[in-house]
Automatic annotation (TrEMBL), chains A, B:
Keyword DNA-binding: yes
Organism: Pseudooceanicola algae
Protein's recorded name: Uncharacterized protein
A Pfam family that the UniProt record links to this protein: GntR
GO MF annotation, one: DNA-binding transcription factor activity
PANTHER family referenced in this protein's UniProt entry, alphabetically: MANNOSYL-D-GLYCERATE TRANSPORT/METABOLISM SYSTEM REPRESSOR MNGR-RELATED, TRANSCRIPTIONAL REGULATOR PHNF-RELATED
CDD domains reported in the protein's UniProt record: WHTH_GntR (cd07377)
Superkingdom of the source species: Bacteria
Length: 233, 233
């Protein structure tokens, strides 16, 4: 396989993509077959096939063995979210970062968290509460549970110099996770952390991650009043 | 290019991916060169190159022309969000959907929206307020502005049978957009819509989309109390 060949399916994919985006081929329409497209582009049928597979993987076309390929009527539009190291996120926009560890202790997993963080009965977890600051102002209140059985190097970490967020991103690779985003009213601890009224509407993100050995961590990040999580589509 | 060749870089990419994920190669480590990997896998160097390019595109390795390829210390973990047709989302989980158009009118673009929705001074927009229901209960309150200059077929639409959400997803393809997610306290209209107290913390998503002809729509979806937006990583 030459480099030129490796790239050619991408060029064809891009042209097919253009036709879908610019509605040369309307939503729901049957597009020409592989043989016809291969002739048009002067390439191998397998190259067209590879390009179509990419569009199908992205949900932009639907392929049926006998019925041919149709343009999706409602293609998925994807947005990307990344899990940042908060320090790096703050510093990337020119801010000054620091964090304060407010609580750190070992405790049995609270029963109400058993569903999202499945551990044996009575399993001990490390519980931390951290306040992350941007330019001296509280930015994120982080409450975290860490599965001690799945983070063996953790005993050495006091999270004073490096936050639990940063340590885990760097040291506890995960294979999967669930995230959810929601609004909550400030309770006493959050109202105090952000110097705001009880009940203030706050944006929060909860995340649980795991690897082959089981759960790693469950964390709730609650953001300062007025925060917006932004992304592009 | 045979089908076997087209797939072989993916097999090699998956093996490299496994080594990165399982820390056979540690974060920050220099990995073997292309020639060495091509020998190990018994394939062309260009195939290894294609696989490495894929990992680099995903941010999992960093390639330097002379310094070789290193495993990323903090690789991005991506989550995908899709923009659903609310009717389909509700029906997919077995619910019954209906919507009610509460307001529909043409008006000049409100000044405070000029930043996110750049239109000429005095441009007219279509403003709609829709309440989306799941199993008879209010699920999403939608407030929307539509650029009339960029949605020519819109005049025929009363959004009674098909919601603006569904019509636009089906008929107004966009090339890009911005999204943001935040918490807000229920104002009188939202408290009324969701039969809840003034000030209740609600989750909201704001989205603006555009194509080559300019902005298409700006919409704020505010969700019923207790809603969580969920995704996987």
């Amino acid at each position: 396989m030459s480099t030129r060949d490796a790239k050619s399916w991408i060029l064809i994919r891009d042209e097919l993509l253009r036709r879908v985006r610019e509605r040369v081929w309307e939503p729901g329409a049957l597009i020409p077959g592989e043989v016809e497209l291969a002739e048009e582009f002067g390439c191998a049928r397998t190259t067209v096939n590879r390009a179509l597979r990419d569009l199908a993987d992205a949900g932009l076309v639907h392929r049926r063995r006998r019925a041919g390929t149709r343009v999706a009527v409602n293609p998925p539009h994807k947005a990307t979210l990344t899990i940042p190291i908060i320090r790096e996120e703050v510093e990337a926009r020119g801010g000054t970062y620091h964090h304060a560890l407010q609580q750190r202790g070992t405790r049995p997993l609270p029963a109400h968290l058993g569903g999202v963080f499945p551990l044996p009965d009575g399993a001990e977890v490390l519980h931390t509460v951290t306040l992350h600051y941007e330019d001296g102002r509280p930015y994120i209140h982080e409450e975290r549970y860490i599965n001690l059985a799945n983070a063996p190097d953790l005993a050495d970490q006091d999270f004073a110099r490096i936050s639990a967020n940063e340590w885990l991103v760097q040291n506890a690779p995960y294979t999967g996770g669930d995230m959810s985003f929601f609004a909550l009213p400030a309770d006493a601890a959050l109202a105090d952390a952000f110097d705001t009224s009880l009940g203030t509407a706050l944006f929060a993100a909860e995340r649980s991650t795991w690897n082959d050995q089981g759960p790693i961590t469950l964390v709730r990040m609650t953001y300062a009043p007025g925060f917006r999580m932004r992304t592009s589509i």
